[in-house]
Design goal:
single chain, alpha+beta, two-stranded antiparallel ribbon, histone binding, Strawberry notch helicase C domain-containing protein
């Protein structure tokens, strides 16, 4: 609550738009550095807790995506099991599209306990 009131007061005093520097990450982080450490910790805890909740909700609903992965770059065994080819028409001609189904296996080696 203290943060919201402070931000509101700053922007009312300066008569600036709240969204003027909305995408300036370095300015945002520098302003956080000016806060007391305890308040910084609480703010980052809020951000990490919120991110964890959003990710958990996305996983439950099936909308969580890991993004682009490099298959086989970490020593996994990757094999292509099926390829479907399509030819699609568009405004300037035709374009081939391929859908590859792959299987990936990770092999772990276990070191003996010391």
């Amino acid at each position: 609550m203290f943060i919201i009131v402070t931000i509101y007061a700053i922007f009312n005093i300066k008569r600036r738009s709240l969204f003027q520097d909305y995408n300036n990450m370095s300015k945002f982080l520098n302003r956080i550095l000016g806060m007391p450490v305890e308040l910084q910790n609480r703010l980052f805890k809020y951000f990490t807790d919120t991110l964890a909740a959003v990710m958990e909700q996305a996983k439950r609903s099936g909308r969580f995506d890991l993004g682009i992965l490099d298959l086989g770059s970490a020593g996994e065994s990757v094999r292509r099991s099926r390829t479907l080819r399509f030819l699609r028409r568009h405004a300037t001609g035709q374009a081939p599209v391929e859908l590859h189904t792959v299987h990936s296996e990770v092999h772990y080696t276990h070191a003996p306990h010391l």
